[in-house]
């Protein structure tokens, strides 16, 4: 059983195609490039600094390099919650959720505690 096509659909489809036409989008994206690239470069530098800092902690503890991505994922998630959440109660709850999630995946609580010492700056 098929439903009849609504009368407004053909016009909506044409409007949608015009809005997402590649020539129009290319011009819009090129206009944003001068502001986006410097912001991206600054953020990439911050992320690299953060990653190197956490990797130094993992190397000091003696974590195998095969496990680094998992511990780095935890550190980045924790860092994101520190930067984005305003209220302390939300930070505490999010930390508990993250710890539970990554401990369930098999990461060691002692190593996560070391990462917490480095990453948590609000609290």
Kindly list the characteristics that best describe this protein.
mainly alpha, 123 residues, Methane Monooxygenase Hydroxylase, Chain G, domain 1, 5 helices
Number of helices: 5
Largest sheet geometry: none
Q: For this structure, what is the CATH class?
A: Mainly Alpha
Global morphology? elongated
Global mean pLDDT: 91
Percent of residues in helical segments? over 70%
Structural class: mainly alpha
Question: Outline of this structure?
Answer:
With 123 residues, the protein is mostly helical. It has five helices and no strands.
Write the layout of secondary structure elements.
Elements: H1 9-19, H2 22-61, H3 68-84, H4 88-104, H5 109-119
Q: Could you describe the 3D structure shown?
A:
The termini are far apart. The mean pLDDT is 91. This protein is mostly helical and 123 residues long. Helix 2 packs across helix 5, helix 3 (68-84) runs antiparallel to helix 4 (88-104) and helix 3 packs across helix 5. The chain is 78% helix and 0% strand.
């Amino acid at each position: 059983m098929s439903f009849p096509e609504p009368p407004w659909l053909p016009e909506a489809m044409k409007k949608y195609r015009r809005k997402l036409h590649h020539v129009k989008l290319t011009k819009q994206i090129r206009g944003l490039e001068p502001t986006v690239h410097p912001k991206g470069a600054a953020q990439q530098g911050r992320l690299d600094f953060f990653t190197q800092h956490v990797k130094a902690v993992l190397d000091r503890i003696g974590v195998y390099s095969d496990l680094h991505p998992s511990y780095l994922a935890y550190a980045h998630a924790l860092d994101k919650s520190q930067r984005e959440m305003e209220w302390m109660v939300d930070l505490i709850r999010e930390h508990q959720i993250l710890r539970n999630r990554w401990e369930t995946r098999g990461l060691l609580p002692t190593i996560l505690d070391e990462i917490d010492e480095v990453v948590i700056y609000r609290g």
